[in-house]
Design a protein that fits this description.
17 helices; DNA-binding
Length: 449
DNA sequence: TGGGGTTAT
DNA sequence: ATAACCC
């Protein structure tokens, strides 16, 4: 490594700068199936699928070799592979818990960890990379070795500033995956690049349990390798349809399309955003997720058509949520009920919801036993229900969901207090089993106290 | 198509 | 409150 300046002065990245970032994206291999196999090792060498209702939502690689795909119907899956073992994955509790263990593990590397679903994380390791680079330069060490694959098999140039940083990033990514395996028993992929979009795209290039780094010169090859605009993260179903109406289908089509006409279709903000994405350009920061913004519980079914049935389902959902919120420790200030009505046309979208503030006298009673809070909440939820459904008319629901949001910390944990700073990554647990988490929290918190 | 999540309008 | 996005 050559010193950037003759005196060996280190060029640091200004805080908040978007210029020389190193981002890791991680993606666990068939996450739900992995959790089930840890839970029951007998399943390890068998083709395994995780079932929700009549769908196989994910499966292990043994099952994939036999032709099972994600989101395949149970009927098709059994037909394709009669030996397929199915476990029910409708209760997400164990997946959610393992998911947060992974995020907390990554937070030991950098506080900037952003969750994407239960099985993906972005980690901004720019500062860690700078620290290691500085240390290497002080030591006068001239060797750094890359971990994992390089996208396109591009040659690394150790005289290139960004190449060196990305190579150090690949070592850190390897350490993160090692820690994940040693401490949690989980395998997964990682991608290292200069922004979130690119790190996510590159992490999937070598698939189970491998990692890949993208060097800047191969950026256009990466985005160009996507066979359709809908494969660009951020361009979803609706936007894809509108772009197709403009005659666009490849990433190159989008790159070279008139920005003026695109802005007329999508608005200038959205137009600029997705056209930048098409070039692999993404300046969005890794936003630390922290604890969740909302907790919800839902259930789908073929048919629910009477008020007593609705009340029963709502009570079930609420009981689960109250359990979860008491473990979280925070209090919800808003409650929402969501329904999905049956309709033969347009049947997979269109949900309706109504929400309202939770009365303050109900909020107070949240931490203390659950039972004095359920009756008023069921009352509120049934009122919300009647705002959407005229109960004297026939109705046919296929989903109910209850959501707590506007979550606020306990009154005692105000901004200036010690408790606030010790609170972050693991909320006080009623079971007290997580005492081993405390030391790592303090490592991150001490400098503030 | 499940059972979750987030942010923007 | 809905609509879009993500897994």
């Amino acid at each position: 490594i050559k010193p950037i300046h003759p005196a060996g002065h280190i060029k640091t990245v200004p805080s908040g700068s978007t210029a020389h970032r190193v981002i890791v994206h991680t993606d666990l291999d068939c996450f739900y199936a992995q959790v089930e196999m840890i839970h029951n090792p007998e399943l390890r060498d068998k083709p395994l699928g995780v079932q929700q209702k009549y769908l196989v939502v994910t499966c292990n690689y043994e099952a994939r070799r036999l032709g099972i795909q994600k989101l395949m119907s149970v009927r098709d899956a059994k037909e394709k592979c009669p030996e397929l073992v199915l476990v029910n994955g409708e209760d997400l509790t164990q997946y959610r818990e393992m998911s947060y263990k992974v995020t907390e593990l990554f937070e030991e590397f950098s506080p900037l960890v952003e969750r994407l679903g239960f099985d993906e994380n972005f980690v901004d390791i720019t500062e860690l990379v700078e620290k290691r680079l500085a240390q290497l330069q002080r030591d006068g060490c001239s060797k750094v070795s890359l971990s994992g694959h390089v996208y396109n098999n591009q040659t690394v140039n150790l005289h290139d500033d960004m190449h060196i940083r990305l190579v150090i990033g690949s070592q850190i990514a390897a350490e993160m995956r090692e820690a994940m395996y040693n401490r949690l028993g989980l395998t997964g992929c990682a991608g290292v690049a200069s922004n979130k979009l690119l790190s996510k795209l590159v992490s999937g290039t070598f698939k189970p349990n491998q990692q890949t780094v993208l060097l800047p010169e191969s950026c256009q090859d990466l985005v160009g390798s996507l066979d359709h605009i809908s494969k660009v993260p951020g361009i979803g179903y609706k936007t894809t349809k509108r772009l197709e109406l403009l005659g666009l289908s490849s990433v190159r089509d989008l790159q070279t399309f008139s920005p003026v006409i695109l802005a007329k279709e999508l608005g200038v903000s959205m137009a600029q955003h997705i056209q930048k994405l098409s070039y692999g350009d993404d300046d969005s920061p890794v936003a630390a997720s922290g604890p969740p913004q909302s907790l919800s519980d839902e259930d789908s079914f073929k048919k629910c058509s009477s008020e007593v049935e609705v009340k029963k389902k709502i009570e079930e959902l609420l009981a689960n949520l109250l359990d979860r919120i008491s473990k979280d420790g925070r209090k919800p200030h808003t409650i929402r009920l969501t329904i999905r009505k049956f309709s033969s046309t347009n049947k997979w979208f269109s949900r309706e919801s109504r929400q309202c503030p939770i009365p303050s006298h109900v909020i107070q009673k949240f931490g203390t036993g659950n039972s004095d809070v359920v009756a008023p909440l069921v009352g509120i939820l049934m009122k919300l229900f009647r705002k959407m459904i005229k109960v004297e008319m026939p109705f046919h629901l296929t989903l109910l969901s209850v959501c707590f949001s506007n979550l606020k910390a306990l009154p005692s944990l105000t901004k200036g207090s010690i408790g606030f700073y010790l609170m972050r990554s693991s909320p006080p647990s009623s079971s007290g089993k997580k005492m081993d988490d405390v030391p790592q929290v303090q490592v991150n918190s001490c400098s503030f106290i």
